[in-house]
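Incident log entry.

Two folding requests arrived from the same account within the same minute. Monitoring flagged them as a possible duplicate submission, but the sequences differ. Recording both here for audit purposes.

Request one:
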Amino acid sequence: MADFKYHVTFVDSKALKTNMQFALADAAYAEAASAAAAIEAALELVTDANVYSSALVEILTGDATLPADADISDEALVVTYLSGTGDIPKYWNLRIPAPVDAMFNADGVTVDITYQNLQDLVSTLSTEVLVSDGEAIDLDIDEGIKRGFWRSVKKSTGYRYN
């Protein structure tokens, strides 16, 4: 048995979107998928909005204990190279919440792009996910990392915690 969440996004006639999320009871995947389909069908009967997208998510891991020294409003913003053609380079920003101190140079602000754990993460992302309009991170240029820096999103962007 596993824990699942069902996410559904609705869109209205003005192209505005809103989300709903449901925690599903412990179930096997087939039962969770059936429950998600039933929820969506029932929702469609009570709303004029269209289902824009939906997702069934299996909760694989989780640690409810609070870390000793972590603030998710602090983040490392790492600029990565994207694969592609043309003379103009393309980039993708990787945001890492509550980054470890070892990721930074002595100034505490500039990301050490040679930090092995960061390079391993970027390498994994380059082979496992597509980012920015379906493109991949290009590891052929500086291990895929252009630069990075520390920033706080506490006040600057109205960061929304989920």
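Request two (distinct sequence, not a duplicate):
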Amino acid sequence: MAFPASMPQTATVAFIGKASEAPPELQGFINFRAGLEKRDLKGREPVAVLRIGSLDSYHVILLDKEPSLAAIEKELAGIDAVLDRMARPALEKAAGGKKKK
């Protein structure tokens, strides 16, 4: 018996801005992502925190290297998530307006 493919979860914007200005409840997610990338954040780096689905599951994107929207979407595809229609333009603007990379 074959199982149906799962539906991708929707990624919505929880926060976009400087790492130091993120709400306290998101700081742990930002620090965790920085640790995964072996980065020492100073607090002024731009970040995006996306809420995945309807649960308290978050995905952090460090925006200081200006990732393209296509690169962000590819990263989200790896966790079976897609940007919602409001997140796409907000991330495109925050990532420096780059569409392809």
